[in-house]
Amino acid sequence: MSAVGALIGLFGALGALVVIARSPVVRRVTLTDRIAPYVLDAVPRSLLLDSANLALPQSNVTRLTRPLVEGASRRLDRLIGRNPSIRRRLAALGDPITVETFRQEQVLWAAAGAAVGLALLLLRLSTGVGPAVLSFAGFVFVATFGGFIARDYALTKAVKDRDTRMAAELPAIAELLALAVGAGESPLAALERVVRRSRGELGRELAGVVADARAGRPFAQALSAVTERTALPGLTRFVDGITVALARGTPIAEVLRAQANDAREEGRRNLLEAGGKREIAMMVPVVFLVLPVTILFALFPGAVTLTSISQ
After folding, report:
1. Distances (CA, A) of 270 to 160, 214, 264
2. pLDDT classification of 75: cutoffs 50, 70, 90
3. With 80 as the cut, is the pLDDT of residue 91 above it?
4. Given a cut of 60, is residue 223 above it in pLDDT?
5. Are 107 and 69 contacting, i.e. CB atoms less than 8 angstroms apart?
6. Where are the domains of the chain?
7. CATH fold of 164-268, please?
């Protein structure tokens, strides 16, 4: 009964906090709420232009929890601040979500961690097996904070994986560009031809360059925008080499071949470095698992013999 009472009290306290937080006395009146009565005669926006209406219908649970999640994300954003690294990593990933949406996902991940911690706490209260209740209460806080950090780590990991795939595609794309330019095509036409035949991350990134150039943006500026979105050193050197060649009139085909060779050499060095790190990691099970077991098998018969003789 103590576990049931604790569960009832927990949900009752959460309900009371929600009611108090959404009450008119506590709730902060926004600027939209202030001016809404005076702009009711304005022409409403077409629902066909709202991308949210094109999505799948939302459930009642989503509609009920969405204001809470959005409010928590806004408070989190005011508390932490708009981190420029989040916007930079989202741009590098090519993800269309905004910083506000990312904050909402962080709140949801933190809520999932808190739910796991609360489930373990209720299991501890119902069974009475395990460490003290205060330890589990601290675990709930750690799980909540861990869910918040895990979303940020997942974003960083996704950006690193995308950079790795782009670095692997760079030599092939540079050589294809060199062949197309050497055949007499302009840099933009050669880039468009290569982009049509590529299916990787770098091809999609360069497709944005072609789209910007076709929309009227100078080709050099469209290429420079790639280095602002990504932090890949090889790609930065590749773009800088093309822009400098365009500005000075240097033969671009030779520059592209040199960039392709540099990219292949850098990939070779990265493979050697990764192999060295894996070699060190492989020594961990050998030193801490295989070697102690070997020593144990070598010394165990002698220890048994000495024990029997002493007896």
Report:
1. 14, 35, 10
2. low
3. no
4. yes
5. yes
6. 164-268
7. Receptor-associated Protein (1.20.81)
Tally DSSP H helices, then E strands, for the chain.
12, 0
Residue that wins the pLDDT comparison between 219 and 28: 219
What is the arithmetic mean of pLDDT over 25-36? 69
E strand or H helix that includes residue 82: none
**Measured in whole angstroms, how far is the alpha carbon of residue 310 from the centre of its chain?**
64
Residues in contact with 66: Cβ distance below 8 Å, sequence separation at least 6, in sequence order: 58
Tokens, residue 238: 């590749």
7: which 2 tokens? 């569960």
47 close to 53: Cβ distance less than 8 angstroms: yes
Could you give the C-alpha distances from 106 to 55, 109, 151, in angstroms and in order?
Answer: 21, 5, 6
Rounded Cα gap, residues 9 and 13, in angstroms: 6
| The amino acid at 98 | T
Which two tokens mark 145? Answer: 């904070």
- Cα 214 to Cα 192: distance, rounded to the nearest angstrom: 10
Question: 190 and 177 in contact (C-beta within 8 Å)?
Answer: yes
- pTM strictly above 0.70: no
